[in-house]
Write a structure and sequence with these properties.
By secondary structure, the protein is α+β, with helices and mostly antiparallel strands. Helix content is about 40%, strand content about 10%.
C-alpha cells in the first residue's frame, strides 16, 4: 500500500513539476502578444496624429465674415466678369436676440442635442449614433451625418457640399476648424451664424428670410408648429418644402416636436396640440421672384441650365458658395435677347409666337448664348424651350441622319444621282410626298439637299440603313429610339442646343464636343474643378467638308436664301414641320399652315440653331411668311457674331477631290471620282410622273437666288399620317418652375412599318 501511495505521490509530484515549466512558457508568450498589441496601438495612435497633422496643415483660413456672409454662388461670364448671384441676395439677417428661444431649442434638439455641452465642436457620441443609423438603415432620407452644428456651420462657410468632396482630409480640417471656432465664438454666436446661413429651398437663405417667405411674418410672430417646420427644413430643403411635399414636411415637423419633447423644451400637451395643426396653416401663397433687370431676363434660360448642371455635378449652388465660370458671352446674350424681344426688323406676327435659340462654339462645345422664349414677362427660371426636345426639327435632320451617313459609310459624292419619284414606305401603303407635291426625277445629292427634297433624303437613309444612321447621329449627341422608322430622316425630336452642337461637328471638321455651360468651378475652399468637353471624332474630315459644301448651297441658292449674309462663309439648313391630316381635322386649322420652323447654320466660329412655333400648335400655326422668322433670327444673330470673328473658309481635306460636272463643282472621296449611277433600283426614265407645270432641276447653280422659297411652303412635306394610336402626346423633358405651356402634339415615332404622324422637312 505504502509503495502504491509513494508511487502515486511521486507521479503527482512529477506532474506538478512538469506543469510548472509549461506555465512559465505560456506567460512570456501572452505578455509578448500584449506588448505587441500595445505597441501597435501606440504606433497607430502616433500615425493617426501624424496623418491628422498632415491633413490640417493646409486648412483654409476661416474668418468671421465667412461665418456671417450668405452662401452666395457667383456666376461669371466667359470674360471672368460676374453677372449673377445665386442665394443670399435678399437675405434678412436676424441677430440672436431676434430669434425666439423656442426656435433655438428646436434647432439644437433636432440637429445637435449636446451642442451646449460640446467643448471642442465635435461630438464622438453623435458620430457613432449616425454610423449606427446608417448601418441599420433607420435614416429616413439616406445617410446621416455625425457633424455638430459647429461643423455644419464650417462646411456651409468654407467647404464644398459635394458628396465626392467629403473625404477624410476634409473631415479632419472641419474638426480642426471646429476647435478654433469654439475657442473664438460663443455658443449663441455660432447658433446665430448657422441659423442665418442655412438654405430652406426656393432661393431662401436664413431662417429669418424663411419666416417672411413662407408665412409673411417675422420669426417672433410664428407659432410653435411653424417654428418646428423651419427648424427641420435645413436637413433636406426640397423634400421638406411644405408647398412641394406637405406630407414629408409634416413628418419632419413632427419629428422636431418629438425632439423638443425629449429635450424637455415643451410639454407633451404642447407637442400633441402642435401636431394637430395642418402643415399649410399660415402659409402664404407661394411667391414668384421677379427678374428685376434686363440682364436677369436675358440670361434666365442660361442661368436655369447652369443651376441644373451644377446639381448634376454634385454641387448645391444655394449653399456651397461657389465661383462658377460659365461659357456665356454676355454681349451675344444681350443681343440675342434684344433680337427676339425688341427688334422690329424681325416680323413676329404676335407676342405668342415663341422661339428658342442655342449658340455654341464648334471648336470646344461651349454654349455661347441661349434663349428659351420671348415675351416671358418677369418669370424667373421659367420654361426653357431651348433644351426641350418634344418638337420635330423637320429637314434640318437630313444632313445629320441621311446625307452625313451616306457620305461617311457609302462614300457617296455630292453628285450622287438620286431618284425624286413617287415613294411608298417599305411594308406600308403610306406614300411620302415632297413639300410641293412634285417629283423631279433624277437629281444630284447636292440639289436634293439644297432644295430640301424629301424622297431623295429617305432614299439615302434606306441605303445606309437605320442601324448605321442611328450610330452616326449618336456620335453627334442625338439618340434616336431603336423602334424609329425611316421617317425620322426628315424630322425627329431634337432640342436646339443638341442640334447646334451636332452641326458644330460639321463646322470643325468632324469632331463632336458635348455642349457645356460651365468650364470651371471654384469651391469655397479654393479648389478648382475643370469641366471643358473632350472632343470625340464623330466623322471623317471628308464627310464634314462635303456636307458643309452642300449646305453652303442651301443658303446661296436653295431653301435658305433668306439667311444670306454678304461675304460671310457660312452653311446652313432649313427645317419645317407640317400638321398631319389628323391634326388638321382635330384643330380645324388651315392645311397650308406649318407647325414648326427651324434654321440651323454655322461658320467656323459659331453654330446657331433657331426654332419658332407656338406653345399650343393646335390653336395656332405658321403661315408662309411666319415660317421665315427662324431664318431672320439666325441672320440677325449670325451677322452680329461675325462682326468680331475671323471670316475664313473651310479647307478641302486631302482625301477629297473636286470635279466639274455639268458646270457644277462636285466633291468625291479620293479614289471614287467616277460619277456613280443611281443608288436606287427605281426607274429614272421618262415614265416618272411630273405635274404639268414642273420640270427636273439640273443643278443647284441654276436655281435663282430670288427663288420663291419665301412665298411657298419651301420644304415642308406632308407625310401621311398613321392611325391616331400611333401619335403620342408630347411630354417635355423638364417642367418649368413657374410657368408651363400647354401640351403640344408630338410627331411621334414608329417602326419601319409604322411612320410618324407628320414630320418634316
Amino acid at each position: 500500500m505504502s509503495d502504491n501511495r509513494n508511487n502515486n505521490n511521486s507521479r503527482v509530484a512529477r506532474h506538478k513539476a512538469e506543469a510548472k515549466p509549461a506555465n512559465k512558457k505560456r506567460r512570456p508568450l501572452f505578455f509578448r502578444i500584449l506588448k505587441w498589441l500595445l505597441l501597435l496601438i501606440v504606433v497607430a495612435f502616433v500615425a493617426g496624429i501624424g496623418l491628422f497633422a498632415y491633413y490640417v496643415k493646409d486648412t483654409p483660413n476661416l474668418t468671421q465674415a465667412d461665418l456671417q456672409s450668405p452662401n452666395a454662388t457667383i456666376l461669371y461670364d466667359d470674360q471672368g466678369k460676374p453677372f449673377k448671384t445665386i442665394g443670399g441676395e435678399n437675405r434678412s439677417y436676424v441677430k440672436s436676440d431676434q430669434i425666439p428661444q423656442t426656435l433655438k431649442d428646436a434647432v439644437v434638439s433636432i440637429e445637435d442635442r449636446r451642442f451646449y455641452k460640446e467643448k471642442f465642436g465635435i461630438d464622438p457620441i453623435r458620430i457613432a449614433s449616425a454610423a449606427v443609423a446608417n448601418i441599420t438603415g433607420k435614416s429616413p432620407l439616406g445617410l446621416q451625418g455625425g457633424s455638430t452644428l459647429t461643423q455644419q456651420l464650417i462646411k456651409l462657410s468654407k467647404f464644398s457640399t459635394k458628396n465626392s468632396d467629403q473625404t477624410f482630409r476634409r473631415k479632419a480640417q472641419e474638426a480642426w476648424l471646429a476647435v478654433q471656432v469654439e475657442r473664438q465664438y460663443s455658443k449663441d454666436q455660432i447658433l446665430e451664424y448657422y441659423m442665418n446661413k442655412v438654405y430652406l429651398n426656393n432661393g431662401v437663405n436664413g431662417m429669418g428670410t424663411a419666416a417672411k417667405y413662407y408665412y409673411g411674418k417675422s420669426l417672433k410672430e410664428l407659432s410653435l408648429p411653424q417654428l418646428a417646420l423651419i427648424a427641420g427644413m435645413p436637413q433636406s430643403p426640397s423634400n421638406y418644402d411644405p408647398y412641394l411635399h406637405p406630407d414629408l414636411a409634416k413628418k419632419r415637423r413632427d419629428l422636431v416636436l418629438d425632439a423638443l419633447l425629449r429635450n424637455n423644451k415643451i410639454t407633451a400637451t404642447e407637442a400633441a396640440e402642435a401636431k394637430q395643426v395642418p402643415i399649410n396653416t399660415g402659409l402664404v401663397d407661394q411667391q414668384t421672384v421677379a427678374n428685376s433687370s434686363t440682364d436677369s431676363k436675358a440670361t434666365d434660360a442660361y442661368v436655369k441650365e447652369v443651376l441644373a448642371d451644377l446639381k448634376k455635378k454634385g454641387y448645391d449652388p444655394y449653399t456651397a458658395g461657389l465661383k462658377v465660370y460659365t461659357n456665356i458671352n454676355m454681349d451675344a446674350q444681350r443681343k440675342l435677347y434684344d433680337i427676339v424681344n425688341n427688334d422690329s426688323s424681325i416680323p413676329f406676327p404676335d407676342d405668342q409666337l415663341q422661339t428658342a435659340v442655342s449658340i455654341t462654339d464648334p471648336n470646344n462645345g461651349r454654349i455661347v448664348a441661349m434663349i428659351g422664349g420671348r415675351k416671358t414677362g418677369d418669370v424667373q427660371l421659367g420654361y426653357n424651350r431651348a433644351v426641350q426636345s418634344g418638337r420635330s426639327n423637320g429637314s434640318s435632320m437630313k444632313p445629320l441622319m441621311d446625307y452625313g451617313p451616306a457620305i461617311e459609310y457609302l462614300d457617296y459624292s455630292t453628285a450622287q444621282k438620286l431618284q425624286d419619284v413617287p415613294y411608298t414606305y417599305p411594308g406600308t401603303n403610306i406614300q411620302l410626298h415632297n413639300f410641293d407635291g412634285r417629283y423631279l426625277g433624277t437629281i444630284t445629292a447636292r440639289n436634293a439637299l439644297a432644295n430640301s427634297r424629301n424622297v431623295p433624303a429617305i432614299e439615302l437613309l434606306e441605303a445606309v440603313g437605320m442601324t448605321k444612321a442611328r450610330e452616326f447621329v449618336k456620335g453627334l449627341g442625338i439618340n434616336v429610339p431603336a423602334d424609329t422608322g425611316l421617317s425620322y430622316g426628315i424630322g425627329g425630336n431634337v432640342s436646339t442646343v443638341d442640334e447646334a452642337a451636332a452641326y458644330g461637328a460639321f463646322a470643325n471638321g468632324g469632331t463632336y464636343y458635348a455642349p457645356t455651360y460651365i468650364h470651371k468651378v471654384e469651391t469655397a475652399d479654393g479648389i478648382t474643378h475643370n469641366y471643358d468637353s473632350d472632343g470625340t471624332q464623330a466623322m471623317k474630315s471628308s464627310t464634314a467638308y462635303m456636307i458643309t459644301d452642300m449646305l453652303k448651297d442651301v443658303i446661296k441658292n436653295g431653301s435658305g436664301t433668306l439667311a444670306q449674309i454678304p461675304g460671310l462663309h457660312q452653311a446652313g439648313k432649313t427645317g419645317t414641320t407640317d400638321y398631319s391630316s389628323e391634326e388638321i381635322a382635330k384643330s380645324g386649322l388651315n392645311p397650308t399652315l406649318a407647325k414648326d420652323s427651324w434654321f440651323a447654320g454655322y461658320t467656323k466660329n459659331y453654330s446657331v440653331t433657331v426654332w419658332t412655333g407656338y406653345d399650343e400648335p393646335l390653336k395656332n400655326g405658321l403661315t408662309m411668311s411666319e415660317r421665315n422668322v427662324a431664318a431672320y433670327i439666325y441672320k440677325a444673330m449670325m451677322a452680329y457674331l461675325a462682326q468680331n470673328a475671323t471670316n475664313s473658309d473651310w479647307s478641302m481635306p486631302s482625301n477629297v477631290v473636286a470635279k466639274n460636272v455639268a458646270g457644277v463643282r462636285e466633291l468625291y472621296i479620293k479614289g471614287t471620282t467616277t460619277i456613280p449611277s443611281s443608288s436606287s433600283s427605281r426607274s429614272s426614265s421618262s415614265s416618272v410622273l411630273y405635274s404639268s407645270s414642273e420640270a427636273p432641276v439640273s443643278s443647284s447653280s441654276e436655281i435663282s437666288s430670288s427663288s420663291s422659297v419665301v412665298e411657298t411652303p419651301s420644304e415642308s412635306s406632308s407625310v401621311p399620317e398613321t392611325s391616331s394610336s400611333s401619335t403620342p402626346t408630347e411630354s417635355s423633358q423638364s417642367q418649368p418652375s413657374t410657368s408651363t405651356p400647354p401640351a403640344t402634339t408630338n410627331p411621334g415615332t414608329g417602326s419601319t412599318t409604322q411612320t410618324p404622324a407628320a414630320p418634316t422637312n
